[in-house]
Amino acid sequence: MKRHNPMLDALKEVLPEIAKRASETEELRKVPAENIALLKKVELHKAFLPKAYGGHEISLPQFGDCIAALAGACASTAWAFSLLCTHSHQIALFPKQAQDDIWSRDTDALASSSIAPFGKYEETEGGVIFSGDMRWSSGCEHAEWALCGFLRENAEGTKDHCFALIPATDYTIDDDWYSAAMKGSGTKTLVIKEKFVPEHRIQKAKDMMEGKSGGFGLYPDSKIFYSPYRPYFASGFSAIGLGIAERMLEHFKESTAGRIRAYTGAKVGTATPAILRIAESSHQVMAARAFLEKTWDEHAEYAEAHRYPDRATLAEWRTNQAYVIKMCVEAVNRLFSSMGASNWYLDKEAQRLFRDSNITCAHAYTDYDVCAQIFGREIMGLEPDPTLL
């Protein structure tokens, strides 16, 4: 779908330079500072920053198109930077005092995350003492803050999944990201040892999904913040899967058109197998984009109308994006499996696209086996299974 998107227009100007550094990004095992500077230059990092702090508050469909385009240039950069962006939406649901702690001092400040409840805590006056080895924090070396998950006992004796906002001065980074895919995302571990987190920088995940968090309703004129945090947090995953698949379609055409089989001299690009594969994968990726755009548009319509989604709608949104990734991975794998052994060399773009595509479905939020259970139970009128994320 063609939509007015000034942010995307500006982003396209810097994508060639980011694409040139894709191999360097993998070698560094983190996003190069030059990529971050380019993305900040076009102000993509302010996509979900509240306007009160100089942000743009662009719609989710506009943001998704930007991340898909960025993923086509460098998936590792898109993975890390999309999360740095979407965390701003989550922080905007924290109390005003927490937002001021971050953005009143620096409107360019970003947060990475480790949202799984790895954290340990002790209650203390005015907050908690927080410790933990907080894993999977993508883009952490370019962040000034981190959102960290932990389970906190409540008055009923059960535990709430909570998020603590912690400044980078309170943790060190364990350089442990050695991965076969998304090598340049810098998804490292934050090491936190007995740091005080005040109460205003702690929020329950459930409250942030139900419109009960400390900052909910703080921006009544906004078109994006009357919304649960999770669809925005997860939006980048499917956009990245789509962007990789769309780039693989282009790359397959470019590399296959003039390819000659070494042993027979046959022209691969005019042979029936290549034609059938590119046709089916193209249909699959076009269907994935249409389905994802429909879901993005629904997110935007609900938020703009200040209409809060019910459980069934949230389940559909959650699982739609995982199905999009499933389709995109299938499309990529169909093409890569026929591209020949030379494309397995580490300097070839195709193998990088293949690796990065397949890791997009490995995230806890994009695991389709989990998502199919969530959606199937909702369709059948069953209560949600608490063991499913």
Automatic annotation (TrEMBL):
<dbReference type="InterPro" id="IPR009100">
    <property type="entry name" value="AcylCoA_DH/oxidase_NM_dom_sf"/>
</dbReference>
<protein>
    <submittedName>
        <fullName>Flavin-dependent monooxygenase</fullName>
    </submittedName>
</protein>
<feature type="domain" description="Acyl-CoA dehydrogenase/oxidase N-terminal">
    <location>
        <begin position="17"/>
        <end position="103"/>
    </location>
</feature>
<dbReference type="GO" id="GO:0050660">
    <property type="term" value="F:flavin adenine dinucleotide binding"/>
</dbReference>
<dbReference type="Pfam" id="PF08028">
    <property type="entry name" value="Acyl-CoA_dh_2"/>
</dbReference>
<keyword id="KW-0560">Oxidoreductase</keyword>
<dbReference type="GO" id="GO:0004497">
    <property type="term" value="F:monooxygenase activity"/>
</dbReference>
<feature type="domain" description="Acyl-CoA dehydrogenase C-terminal">
    <location>
        <begin position="236"/>
        <end position="367"/>
    </location>
</feature>
<dbReference type="InterPro" id="IPR037069">
    <property type="entry name" value="AcylCoA_DH/ox_N_sf"/>
</dbReference>
<dbReference type="InterPro" id="IPR036250">
    <property type="entry name" value="AcylCo_DH-like_C"/>
</dbReference>
<dbReference type="InterPro" id="IPR013107">
    <property type="entry name" value="Acyl-CoA_DH_C"/>
</dbReference>
<dbReference type="Pfam" id="PF02771">
    <property type="entry name" value="Acyl-CoA_dh_N"/>
</dbReference>
<dbReference type="InterPro" id="IPR046373">
    <property type="entry name" value="Acyl-CoA_Oxase/DH_mid-dom_sf"/>
</dbReference>
<dbReference type="InterPro" id="IPR013786">
    <property type="entry name" value="AcylCoA_DH/ox_N"/>
</dbReference>
<keyword id="KW-0503">Monooxygenase</keyword>
<dbReference type="GO" id="GO:0003995">
    <property type="term" value="F:acyl-CoA dehydrogenase activity"/>
</dbReference>
